[in-house]
Write a structure and sequence with these properties.
The chain is elongated, with a radius of gyration of 15 Å. The chain is 51% helix and 10% strand. The protein has a two-stranded antiparallel ribbon with strand order 1-2. The protein has one domain (2-71). The longest helix is centred in the middle third of the chain and has 23 residues, at 28-50. 4% of the residues are buried. The chain is mainly alpha-helical. Helix 2 runs antiparallel to helix 4 (64-71). The chain is built from four helices and two strands. The chain has helices spanning 18-21, 28-50, 54-60, 64-71; strands at 2-5, 8-11.
């Protein structure tokens, strides 16, 4: 999920799964599946950013440079906060 805070893009982490809320730690397969979902979401979100028009960017308070910086980040690494 993408959000904007003070003109900067923020990718929010999904809420914890019901298994985690129950106190059971995720097994290896669950952790791997969760990581794949996260990576796919980052790729999808960054591809969506590339389709923004200048009007969309202006409405959101971001610049083409903000988008360029965000999409240049590798999908496996969370974008560092600027």
């Amino acid at each position: 999920m993408t959000a904007i805070a003070h003109g900067h893009l923020i990718f929010r982490q999904p809420s914890s799964t019901p298994e985690r809320a129950a106190g059971r730690p995720p097994n290896l397969a669950e952790r791997f599946a969760g990581k794949l979902r996260l990576w796919r979401r980052r790729i999808r979100d960054r591809e969506a950013l590339l389709r923004f028009t200048h009007r969309d960017m202006r409405d959101m308070g971001i610049t083409p440079a903000d988008i360029s910086w965000e999409v240049s980040q590798p999908f496996w690494r969370e974008a560092p906060r600027r």
